[in-house]
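ESCALATION

Customer reports they have been waiting on this structure for their group meeting. Please prioritize. Original submission:
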Amino acid sequence: MRWQFRRTWQPTVDVDTCTHCGDCLNICPNSPECIAQYATAASLQGVTFGLATDADYFVAYDNDPARRILSASGGVTTALTEYLLLTGAVDGVIAALPLTACAGQPHFEMRVFRSAEDLDRGRGSHYHPMNYAQVLAEVSAGPGVYAVVGVPCVLRGLVRLPQRFQEKIKYKIGLVCGRNANGAFSDCLARKEGIAADVPYRIKFRDKVGIPDANHYNNLFEFSNRWIRKSRFATAFTEMWRNYFFLPECCLYCPDFYGVDADIAIKDAWGRLSTDPLGTSLLIVNNPEIKQHLVRLKHARRLFLQSCPWEEVFDSQKATAIFKHEKVRYRIVWKKCLKGRLNINYRHLSWQERWFSLDSIDYWRKFCLMSLSNRLFARFEKVPVTLLNVLFSPLPRDVMKKIRSVGVKLKTSLMKRRH
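Update from on-call: job pushed to the front of the queue and completed.
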């Protein structure tokens, strides 16, 4: 994996040692075959893909406010992984750590944490591409078992690794994920706050100091001798995030929101549970051992843990689940390599372009904003965020319906002429 000038990790092949075994393609979580397989499973199960009927669902948070305020949501991920380390259930935890770095360099990296103190430094949301190659090489070379923290695409790759890696991974801790961003996202935010390209900084995307509720989190930039803290609504964060700026293209086609391969998936509690500024977590537990660990944490009064119906998780972010699991079919068919794989293996599901569907129009809008933001920042180190959003603002729904109606009539007319 090599760090590229577009602020992301890129897989490369050493042609001198490559044996053409095909393992890299078979393991890759974003290969056409893998995406087609998961998209088909999501299409068959529907919007609740990843919410198993035999799973356990909980509302949870760390009972220590001092720890909880430092976390992205309820602090459950850190509390659980610390417990696994301290009790000897695992020998280490593979998770992300924020870095102080200049623009153009990675601002987060994967580490093998072996103490609770080190884990505490990794709290927060890390919207950034991650490279797992070095940490996986480290754990495979020695004894012990590990817990791995990752988003759904990472877990897709983990379950496809060779057996020597599988034996080392005891627990897969999933972070529910609607999409990610490449490293240009944080660098663009920094530039818009007047931070020069040669000034090292560390970013915290979800700072909670002084916020009225969980939705109004801050963006925090930390330097050696000062800091900048602003509400996400006062920076370019929300405008860029909601409009898919600096999106890795694979996120447009990923059909897994809840982390179907996870032993436990942890998500932010939005909606009715977001009024608490300290944050709350929602848990999807698929592994009985993990459930036992959580119950012990509850009895030790480290965690607040309360069972809830699966609908609590679904309703917390319903629109994203629909977008990821159901509407992915309107995006995936526009990618030639993915459409080809679907036609070969899953033709009976009738994957086809909906040329004038509202969802196809929405796909191309997001695709343009993603592409332009990445290209403009790579070329000019700045992006006209507001201008792009105005140029590619969604058309009024009634206008889009009229366009769709005209398109359907045109397509019907052309088909009649062919016959």
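Sent to customer with the following note: The two ends are 52 Å apart (CA to CA).
Escalation resolved.
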